[in-house]
Design goal:
It is a single chain. By secondary structure, the chain is α/β, with parallel strands linked by helices. Helix content is 55%, strand content 10%. The chain contains eleven helices and five strands, in the order ααβαβααβαβαβαααα. The chain has a five-stranded parallel β-sheet with strand order 2-1-3-4-5, sandwiched between helices. Strand 1, helix 3 (51-68) and strand 2 form a beta-alpha-beta unit. The longest helix is centred in the first third of the chain and has 21 residues, at 3-23. The chain is globular.
Length: 259
Amino acid sequence: MSPGELLHAMNDEDHKVADAVRMSVPQIQKLLEAMVERLRRGGRVFYLGAGTSGRLGVVDASEIPPTFGVRDVFIGLIAGGDTAIRKAVEHAEDDPRQGWKDMAPFSPTPDDVVIGIAASGTTPYVIGVCRDARSHGLLTGCIVCNADSPLAEAVEYPIVTVVGPEFLTGSTRLKAATAQKLILNMLSTASMILLGHVEGNHMVDMQLTNRKLVDRGTRMILEETGLTDYVQAHELLLRYGSVREAVSAWRQSSASDNR
């Protein structure tokens, strides 16, 4: 294939992913609703996977604090530890007991949720931690891309998204990984919305970690309050530290002035 043919062929395969995920929405909804119930009780969500699947879980979990201002609620663990985020760790995924050991420092409780991520649905590390977590009363779910997998059988809330053969045979970092990323986006973002960390479609609890986000927060305040003075909105944001607190303070002040 020429470069153009390669790219078009890969893109044709990628188009199949969103449709496959849509077919899984009823399963995603069941896990989401169960997750939110546990989160409301003070539980946490643990993502566990190996290789690409593990890295996707780590990425999604790491985005929750800056996006929603929530810390230590979504936790991503990968077979082989943090070293495996950048480099493959041989045989790390083959121990079915290691996942529960990796969770031990976090003192898991029955209010917590474990979501195993494995394209094949056969990874011992992931199957093992889901079985152990379930035996200890934790809520268990998974994201897999093969039908009738051992992992799907091991959990209460399986999400099975069959994307079909990969463009490069066996390279599940392609369509399978794209599907997993889309589902993780849905689970984490929808749960944060349902728990009140979003107003309208605004990230009102986001952390102000750079100039871009400070500017974005300032513009949110302008929109939410009807203010027209950028400097005033910017000062409000810096004074109160978040869009939510700034808007709340402005509304209280306005209500007081109108009495």
